[in-house]
């Protein structure tokens, strides 16, 4: 079965190309979002948006800022988990926290986070002797944590509140619930698959052993906590009426975030906002736009500015110490290695032996 899927994927890549599909998908998402935003924003009274911003409850704004801070704190464990997964126990938490916070802050705002976030990680981790391939593995494991968390939140959330997803995908609630159950079954099957025995994926000199079943559950918890804090921040910035349940908002929020991620636009700009405006049609648009603007300020702009300051100070310290410095933006070979993480990840070799210790990274 796996060999058939692998053969089909390679044939598709040779004849059409996954890159072309990804590009067309991104363009389509951005185009649709642009049309939707134009139609929804052309009647907006921006004076009312300003009034809504001024009327924001300081307590709610402060709590939203606190939840964003907790969310970014959780993001640091993406990198710490990935480092321990590839066996780099020598890298301390403070370095993982620095790399995690700055890479996600930059990646969220610049877009194409695999490359931009990977470049920041490479700059930081190279000081600890990690090469491009190891940084690519960190990006892969951190990405796996992200997707496991998203899939779990969406699966459980849509199963509980299927109509929330209907606001995004326009499918009937019963069909969304079936999709949610399928997602949960796939997640459970994956956990059971990695629970039995160490699972190796990749090929050639890019191979990594997936986290064990217990560690995969930890991955899922990290992802859920991260998304939970982000959704709570958005929840605190929502208009007071009409009321909406947290689970419903979480499903809409995560779905809108994933659409923005798929578009590769910086910060999901336009795509995330359009999805939120469409899904939360029952709210006053001016008040909802005010909440979205405040969320962007807290989750994107402020962390991005802090990350640039932190990275700048770090560069100055390294310069004053006269330490050897790798380029902040790595060479094309480094970018290619980071990009290869995704390509090799979808080419598992279950029959590979764990005895090839020289080319494999043992985890769990």
Name the quaternary structure: single chain
Can you list the strand order of the major beta sheet?
Answer: 1-2
What do the pLDDT scores average to?
81
Shape, principal axes of CA atoms: globular
For the termini, the CA-CA separation is: 26 Å
Helical amount: over 70%
Rg (C-alpha, Å): 21 Å
Number of strands: 2
Number of individual domains = 1
Order of helices and strands: HHHHHHHHHEEHHHHH
Helix-strand category: mainly alpha
Q: Treating each run of at least 4 consecutive H or I residues as one helix, how many helices?
A: 14
Beta-strand content: under 5%
Poorly predicted parts: 325-333, 341-364
The description of the largest β-sheet is:
2 strands, antiparallel
Question: Explain this structure to me?
Answer:
Helices cover 74% and strands 2% of the residues. The longest helix is centred in the last third of the chain and has 37 residues, at 285-321. The chain has a two-stranded antiparallel sheet with strand order 1-2. It is mainly alpha-helical and 364 residues long. The protein has helices spanning 2-15, 18-41, 46-54, 58-85, 93-110, 113-125, 132-160, 162-169, 173-196, 213-236, 246-263, 271-279, 285-321, 332-345; strands at 200-203, 206-209. It is built from 14 helices and 2 strands. The chain has one domain (19-345). Helix 4 runs antiparallel to helix 10, helix 4 (58-85) packs across helix 13 (285-321) and helix 8 (162-169) packs across helix 9 (173-196).
